[in-house]
Amino acid sequence: MKRSFALGILVAALFAAPVFANQPDFPHISTTGYGEIEATPDMAEFSVRVVQSQMDADQAKQAVDAVVDKFLTGLMSKGIEKKDIQSSNLYLSPQYHYPEKGKPELVGYRASRTVTLQVMDLDNLNSYLDLALDSGINQVDNIQLKVKDQGQYQEAARMAAIKDAQSKAASLAKGFDQKLGKVWRIEYRQPMNQPVVMRNMAMDSKVESNSYQDSVITIRDRVDVTYQIGK
Fold first, then answer.
1. Mutual orientation of helices 57-77 and 125-135 as an angle, nearest 10°?
2. CATH C-level class of 43-146
3. pTM, to two decimals
4. Hey, which CATH number is domain 23-41+148-196+216-231, 3.30.110.170, 3.40.50.300, 3.40.50.720, 3.30.700.30?
5. What is the annotated signal peptide range for this record (predicted)?
6. Half-sphere exposure of 118 (CA within 13 A, CB side)
7. pLDDT digits (tens, 9 = 90+) for 113-147
8. Is the pLDDT of residue 31 over 60?
């Protein structure tokens, strides 16, 4: 029984060792700094979809392709570059009616394609959406408002997070009558910044809203810092 007990302690110690291996063996303060920068969107990306249902699969495909081709031709005429356009392959699926009794009945085919456009000039967003409507597009999946120079704003948010961590550490050290020493460890995990998104807009009327022009994008960052402290 004694040997088993001793072996249990040894095993527990072996598994616990890595947990404490990264812990500082000196007095320290750990802080987390947060930074936020607000930016006005100057570009956008939107995805539109055309959906058609026909009795014949080939007819459904042709109807969808005709709408997409018209939309792409219109975009090209407005000077949109091919690199800013992504057009998905055709998605075709049979549609069934399920009666209470009996086998499912084929009632037609549903075809769809999606076009994603990068809009470098936000002032043109509404005209591109109107063009989609005129071409026969019947669904907007989402509109994402973005900024062109994301890295510049991210760097500013990161610097704000660093200053926040430094300020907190200095305040804590002063409050506990300690001297703030050198940085021992820095841990950085950049948060995922989400663009402003507007979803599921109906394509049954002209797009007249300019509310997106008043939107603000908040770009965030954070940093975890451990400082040495001493008297």
1. 150
2. alpha beta
3. 0.71
4. 3.30.110.170
5. 1-21
6. 10
7. 999 999 999 999 999 999 999 999 999 988 999 99
8. yes
